[in-house]
Amino acid sequence: DQQVKQNSPSLSVQEGRISILNCDYTNSMFDYFLWYKKYPAEGPTFLISISSIKDKNEDGRFTVFLNKSAKHLSLHIVPSQPGDSAVYFCAASGGATNKLIFGTGTLLAVQP
Amino acid sequence: EAQVTQNPRYLITVTGKKLTVTCSQNMNHEYMSWYRQDPGLGLRQIYYSMNVEVTDKGDVPEGYKVSRKEKRNFPLILESPSPNQTSLYFCASSLAESVNEQFFGPGTRLTVL
Lengths: 112, 113
Description:
The complex is a heterodimer.
Chain A: E1 4-5, E2 10-14, E3 19-25, E4 30-38, E5 45-51, E6 56-59, E7 62-67, E8 72-77, E9 86-94, E10 101-102, E11 106-111
Parallel strand pairs in A: 2-11
Antiparallel strand pairs in A: 1-3, 3-8, 4-5, 4-9, 6-7, 7-8, 9-10, 9-11
Chain B: E1 4-7, E2 10-13, E3 19-25, E4 31-38, E5 42-51, E6 54-57, E7 65-66, E8 76-78, E9 87-94, E10 103-104, E11 108-112
Parallel strand pairs in B: 2-11
Antiparallel strand pairs in B: 1-3, 3-8, 4-5, 4-9, 5-6, 7-8, 9-10, 9-11
């Protein structure tokens, strides 16, 4: 059972426009959420996170929004740049475990 | 440079031939973990370790073994590899108090024929 879901396998946007990547989760015990970015032939790198006590966290061009009632989070990238082209993984943790649960990833392509 | 290294980066082997993928980190991290990445399934945790001599199963531990004899090393052992273990493997590490923000190695592409 996939507890963290990214329903869009891919997304294509124009340079300078907004990219919105979505993630849904099912486990109400999750209290911390993250986005990781992965380039080809490299390991994932941490991008941005948000605690369940917040509904928004911003870091430069990247903003993560959390809607706890809908069990939904999103990553906004504004403005999008070609260097943002990568696979983005949503991840969640919480409860009694020391584990991160990852989504299936969304491949973002930013067209020049 | 702070990093997680994995070796080998690429490996093609045959069913049943024991293999070990090494993982080493130079950040004095307590927490280390192994993941596999498969199409449509994302990253799934195989095993993790909270510190030396402390290991625990992740979500997909079957067919794998690990050991944590030293803080910096966390090898992944496949005693009898099978084709369904063909995958992209990542090692990761973090401080014990921030396991959410893990540092990942570059990955090992394993093919079992």
